[in-house]
Amino acid sequence: MTRIHQLPGVESLMDMVSPGSLLSFNALRQGLGVNAATARQWLDQLERLHFFFRVEPFAGKLPRALRHAAKLYLWDWSYVADPELRFENLVACALLRWCHFAQDWGGEDLELRFVRDKERRSVPFLLVLDGKPRLLVGTAAGEVGGLGQLRYFSQRLRVPAVLAAGASKAAAESAGVKVLPAAAFLAGIP
Predict the structure, then answer these.
(1) What is the pLDDT of residues 167-190, one digit of tens each?
(2) Phi, psi angle pair for 7, to nearest 5°
């Protein structure tokens, strides 16, 4: 941040960050017209300034799981224009707060991860305790959907799956996935 003449490039980078999408240094460096080291440095500075946080992939023993590309979420989720992405970003912030609470107060090694495989099946969030998967969390701001991928990874990882649904009025269960109203799910997070 000491190079003021590069500030317009950093501002462009801030506009290019798409919450919930996979981080591609190559696409960022090409879009900004800078080298990869500069793009990484700018991203690191924005992360230190609490503009966004990274969610790393969980591979564990999943075959063909994505292992390297992180996802970015903004600390100020209200900055996100798309309602579906804004809701996913809100849930990411709430789950990360839960992880920090568990680490600070209970000394537990609770981490926020995501799951995606090379067939592009994905679940936005996985809570991992001491390196072991514990809970899959999906999001739906509108109509409930995407239960197939939650069910798929729930069976593979042998963990419960929850869908936080913004449009849902009551709790339900569908094909082994618990569907909770977003207000109830978020209120239950410590």
Answers:
(1) 888 888 887 899 999 999 999 998
(2) -55, -40
